[in-house]
Amino acid sequence: MKKVLAFLLAALMVAAMFAGCGSDKTETPTAAAAGGADEAPAAAGAVKLGMSGPLTGGAAVYGTAVKAGMEIAVEEINAKGGLQLELNCQDDEHDTEKALNAYNTLKDWGMQVMAGPVTTAPCNVVAAECANDKIFMLTPSGSGASIIEYGDNIFQICFTDPNQGVASADYMATHDLGTTIGVIYDSSDVYSSGIYEKFAAEAQVKGLNVACVEAFTADNKADLTTQVTKCKDAGCDVVFLPFYATEAAQVLTYANTIGYAPTFFGCDGMDGILTVENFDPALAEGLMLLTPFSADASDEATQSFVAKYQEKTGIVPNQFAADAYDVIYSIYQALVAGGVTADMSASEINDILVAQFTSMTFDGLTGTGMTWQATGEVSKGPMAVVIKDGTYVGAE
Amino acid sequence: MRFLQYLINGVSIGSVYAIIALGYTMVYGIARMLNFAHGDVIMVGAYMSYCVTSYLGLPAIVGVIVAALVCTLLGILIEGLAYKPLRGVPSLAVLITAIGVSYFLQNAAQLIFGSAPKNFKSIVTMKPLVLFGGGLTITGEVMVTVLACVVIMVGLTLFTGKTKMGKSMRAVSEDRDAAQLMGINVNRTISITFAIGSALAAVAGVLLCSTVPTLMPTTGSMPGIRAFTAAVFGGIGSIPGAMLGGILLGVIETFSKAYLSTQFSDAIVFLVLIVILLVKPAGLLGKNVQEKV
A162-291: same fold as A23-159+302-311+318-379? Predict the structure, then answer.
């Protein structure tokens, strides 16, 4: 009896573990080819785009936003007729090993262009593979400076971490946000520490008074009260938070509890804080962040995207969703301009896309007149937004 | 004044560690096993409280009671299904089972609640106490946490010292076979230990998430491991030891962040732990008992 019970329990656990990891892996390709009569994958008439990102786990806010943004773009393009796209989204849980597995799954599926991954650490491992396999890669939001160094066919549509650090310091210097600046960053995360280093260098150049620099790591981020208290004691009236929304929610909550109200300033990772379940938007009131996209922009493209996104997910899209939308459209523009057909091999498409991306100009939601350098870096200007009454508003 | 502020913050997070450490230490003292799933019971407690207060809109106190009840049942269930069948087998097998239970709970929570973080509304509505013209801020959460910790500590000491059940717990921890010969129901005693430890975990979960509002399926694992360290530091198996270890760990952690470096705080904390364990291998209040081989 005992043995039976033990076996049952063991079986249950194994099942639960598989269920836990596998819940999102069975994603079916979201936008199937329109000409469904022909079953052969290569002849189905659709270019196969692969995406991997954290659809579950702590960074899921970003992965799910990117997935939804891409799906909207693919649906729109396929509805136009002409060149068709097929999108396959895999979950990497913001984990390098799982990102590699996701990449291999996509390759087996017959991926011709990689439109991901979403976060920096997985981008680093996948970029190395894409460079090796000659598969064109354009990440919507992997902002680490090292990603594009893996090869000539690795491109970014978001601005890089160094850019964000420099731009944040410049913004603080030119807009006179405060006299004493405090910084809290995640020293165990390449995204956060990358931004911080460039910020510190630029702050020195601009003569900003950085009075307090505090760090935390993935292991001790359960308690950030000391870091906030130290910023308060140092008299900081601007606190720079170059990390993700999950931890930022903690900082904002605690600062509010102890009655500390400086201007909090974040980067693109802060985007998404308003979608944390049960988070009180009043706490984020006045929070500033640098982002290339604000949902309240009045142009027609943004309005239409925001409406579709809200209909699909029920929430206002953040910058990640907009970047993802632009990724699909820029790839589409390059595919069409380069005369790509669905039966070409991944490496043929790769060469055409590299040539197109380094020569074309792209107008999207996150910027107009975007161009790409041969290194894979995009040139577009960041824009500051501030949270007012629970939504993003342009700060200018 | 700053010193006092950091001390208070340290005692506050230390009290949470202490309440979690009590669960580890009681189970270890009586069942001689490391229940690595303890950290995840914290997470379950926090989710239960979250559901009751946010989805059903009931008052916070109901949330705490429901969380404690659910975790008590969960503790008994885990013990009965996963650990009881393994009584008498080498402790390594039980340890691995405990890790399995930990994964089971985390993944089950991921399936049920999803992996996106939820923002836990503090159960404390008290206004923070501002002293010395803003020089010292004591939040309501700090007061409630420290008070809860003291109450639990006194309650447990009285329980193990005065009640019949408490005495049989001590007897089982002293010598299981002899206790059985004296007519003590060992299995029931162990189940009750798990029940108490898990109820404490639920309280700890609610208090932890009141200070640190991010609730995810992995919320319990890091504080769980820290509290386990605290239990070893104080002397595993000793109830006052868990308390002392937890509070000291919290204070050392906060001080090293405040006065030395936030970048290296973990390295400093664990360096102190290593030094203390080198000097006192059984922990601060642990008894150095010769193991019979």
Answer: yes
Of the candidates B106, B107, B118, the beta carbon closest to that of A278 is on: B118
Q: What is the DSSP letter of A389?
A: T
Are B212 and A220 inside 8 Å of each other by CB?
no
The pLDDT value given to residue A44: 53
How do the domains of chain A map onto residue ranges? Answer: 23-159+302-311+318-379, 162-291
**Which residues on chain B are in Cβ contact (under 8 Å) with A61?**
116
Q: What is the pLDDT of residues B91-106, one digit of tens each?
A: 788 889 999 999 899 8
Q: Which residue shows structure tokens 């929304």?
A: A245
Around A26, how many Cα atoms within 13 Å sit in the side-chain half-sphere? 6
Q: Which residue carries 């994603």 as its tokens?
A: A27
**Residue partners of A75: CB distance under 8 A and separation at least 6:** A31
Q: What does CATH list as the number for B2-279?
A: 1.10.3470
**pLDDT tens column, A42-55:** 345 799 999 999 98
**Preferred mutation among B2, B212, B226, B255 to probe A, highest tally of A CBs within 10 A:** B212
Q: Which CATH architecture does the domain made up of A162-291 adopt?
A: 3-Layer(aba) Sandwich (3.40)
- What is the distance in angstroms between the Cα of A228 and the nearest Cα belonging to chain B? 10
pTM for the whole structure: 0.73
Chain segment B152-173, per-residue pLDDT in tens: 988 988 988 899 888 888 888 8
Phi and psi angles of residue A262, each rounded to the nearest 5 degrees, phi first? -85, 180
Burial classification of residue B175, based on how many CB atoms lie within 10 Å of its CB (0-12 exposed, 13-18 middle, 19 or more buried) = exposed
Question: Nearest-CA residue of chain A relative to B126?
Answer: A257
**What is the CATH architecture assignment of A23-159+302-311+318-379?**
3-Layer(aba) Sandwich (3.40)
